[in-house]
Structure formats: structure tokens, C-alpha cells
Amino acid sequence: MKALLCKAFGPADTLVLEDLPSPEPKKNEVLIEVQAAGVNFPDTLIIEGKYQFKPPFPFAPGGEVAGVVKAVGEKVSHLRAGDRVMALTGWGGFAEEVAVPAYNVLPVPKSMDLTTAAAFGMTYGTSMHALKQRANLQPGETLLVLGASGGVGLAAVEIGKAMGAKVIAAASSAEKLEVARNAGADELINYSEQSLKDEVKKLTGGQGVDVIYDPVGGALFEEAFRSIGWNGRFLVVGFAAGGGIPALPANLPLLKGASLVGVFWGSFAQRQPQDNAANFQQLFAWHAEGKLKPLVSQTFPLERGGEAIDALGQRKAVGKLVVQVRQGA
Ligand SMILES: NC(=O)c1ccc[n+]([C@@H]2O[C@H](COP(=O)([O-])OP(=O)(O)OC[C@H]3O[C@@H](n4cnc5c(N)ncnc54)[C@H](OP(=O)(O)O)[C@@H]3O)[C@@H](O)[C@H]2O)c1
């Protein structure tokens, strides 16, 4: 089977397509014939040796896939060969086959094609957990989403609307904001040109927002926190802007009676699998009803998977990029 391999830490153009023997599923694993692999921010870090996990060389990047079960280990009973599935892989997804622990594999409903499924789990799973379990977002509340045209950001816009919130999308360009508007955002802020705090003040009649979803970090972090309202919840999702982990003066949450709330979806899925499964039932139902329309803005063949990672790292992507490992997904 073919895999796009990282053989030494470096930029995306150093990845090489090679033939490897097919993996054998261990007793608790599922072997998947990969149709498509979603591209996520950690892929930009893992190939550079900057991620929390450093897999042994050679490894393929690719943290999530969708495809068809080829074989299962002897202890796997809820899946069988031929099932359409999506899975979190951590890495190894940019390959024709990957073996994954069964607890990281979910059946894909008939209503969803496999390219969409490859772009769905990480982003919608994260944003649903963030807005439901961590923020307890209520209908009628105001949600501010930073990086609102990116993978997790755009999912947060759609889920926020599905939960009945008023959504303010914030992003770095007019083109990106248009993507967020098409996903249902009620109001738009271009934080390259406008003051986030002043615009939020105008849009909320000086009240501030109830919930802030922040996958960007950097200089926006504190500025965004200053636009939170009384009883607000600020979701710490990620640090795509780089430049170190931001810090917050502790008087800011005190003055607003506000909370700084961490979001770690991978850990939640492992520790609370039933809650995560319930989240996905709701997400699949919303998708089937047309309330969620995941945006796959571009697909790449396996040999050009490095270009997809590069586009994400260069802040050029909108919605999701997908590596189409096999045709016909
Ligand atoms: N906590 C969790 O459980 C969890 C789960 C999944 C992902 N994450 C994290 O969430 C973040 C976003 O992931 P993603 O897959 O949605 O990424 P993405 O699609 O690339 O979106 C990130 C957004 O961040 C903004 N950004 C600002 N500065 C940037 C820079 N220097 N480089 C790239 N983007 C920049 C961009 O929007 P603008 O240009 O509009 O600013 C971009 O749309 C990452 O830090 C990821 O690790 C966390």
C-alpha cells in the first residue's frame, strides 16, 4: 500500500510517497481502506516535530480518515469488513490503509459521503463538545467565533446556529468572512482591519458576548477576552497564530464574573465516550436535516498531500482540505 511519509522532521515538501507492507490489525484494532483523509492543524506541527506526539520514523501524517473496514482484530465485535467508517488516527491517515484502535472508529451514516466524513469528526466533534459540555451555550445567547472560516471555527459557527445562538464571526479577511456568512453567521468582524473589542461593543449594545470560541490565540486572545460579557465563558481551543501560549491578567475574569474554559476534545472522547457518541448522534441528525453543511473547499490526491498541509500552515485554507486517497469516495 502507498503512504505519504515523513522520514525526517521538516517542511511539507519533504514528504515522500512510498510503498509499505499492509498493516496487520492487532486484536483491538480495525484495518481501514482509506478513501479520504481530513487535514487538520496538528498535521502542520507533527511533520515539523513541534506536536505533543513525535511518532517514530517513517510515519505518515493524517489525523483522521474515512473509508471502508477491510478487517478487524479478534476482539472487535461491533464493526465488520465492508462497513463505512470514520476514524481518528492521530497520524498515519495519509496512506491507503491504516490500523486504528476500535474505540476511535465510528460508523458513517448513509446520509454522509466519505469525503465529508473525513472532514467531519475532528472539527465538528471539537466544536460540539466545546459549545455543549464546556460552554453550555443557550438559545438566544451571543457567540463570538474567532478564525471563523477555519476548520473548527466554521464548525462552531454552524453548531452555534443549530443551538439557537446569535453568531458573530471574526476572521482576517473579507473572503473568509463571506465563507462564515454562508455558513449562517449573523454578524461579521474583520480583525485585520477593525478593533474586535469596539465592534463587539457596537454589536451587543455594550453588553459583550456570552461565549467566545478561540482556536487562534496570539494577540487576539486578550483583546477578545476584554469583549466578554457578564457570566461569559471563554473557550480556549487552540493557538493557530503561534508565537507562544497567551496569558491573561486574572482581574479580567474577576471583573466580568467570567470563566476561562479549556477544551480538549480528544481527552473528552476517551474519558466520556458515551457523551461523545451522543454528541455525534446529534451532529449526524443535524447533518441529515441540512443544518450542518461541512465545507470541503479543496481536495488533493495522496501524492500532493504536502500541499494541503502547507496551505493550512500558510493560513490560506477555508473550511476543510481533504486528501482524496482513493477515487469514488
Ligand atoms: N482543543 C481541541 O480539542 C482541539 C481540537 C481540534 C483542533 N484544535 C486546535 O484548533 C486550532 C485550529 O485548528 P484547525 O484545524 O481548525 O485549523 P485551520 O483550519 O487552519 O484554522 C485556523 C484558523 O486560525 C487562524 N489563524 C490565525 N493565525 C494563523 C496562522 N499564523 N496560521 C494559521 N492559521 C492562523 C486562521 O483564520 P484567520 O486567517 O481568519 O485568522 C485559520 O482559519 C489549532 O490550534 C488546533 O490545534 C484544538
Automatic annotation (TrEMBL):
One of its GO terms (molecular function) is oxidoreductase activity. Gene3D superfamilies: Medium-chain alcohol dehydrogenases, catalytic domain, NAD(P)-binding Rossmann-like Domain. Residues 10-323 form the Enoyl reductase (ER) domain. InterPro entries: ADH-like_C (IPR013149), ADH-like_N (IPR013154), ER (IPR020843), GroES-like_sf (IPR011032), NAD(P)-bd_dom_sf (IPR036291), Zn-ADH-like_protein (IPR051397). Pfam families: ADH_N, ADH_zinc_N. PANTHER family: QUINONE OXIDOREDUCTASE-LIKE PROTEIN 2, SHORT-CHAIN DEHYDROGENASE/REDUCTASE. This is NADPH2:quinone reductase. It comes from Ectopseudomonas guguanensis.
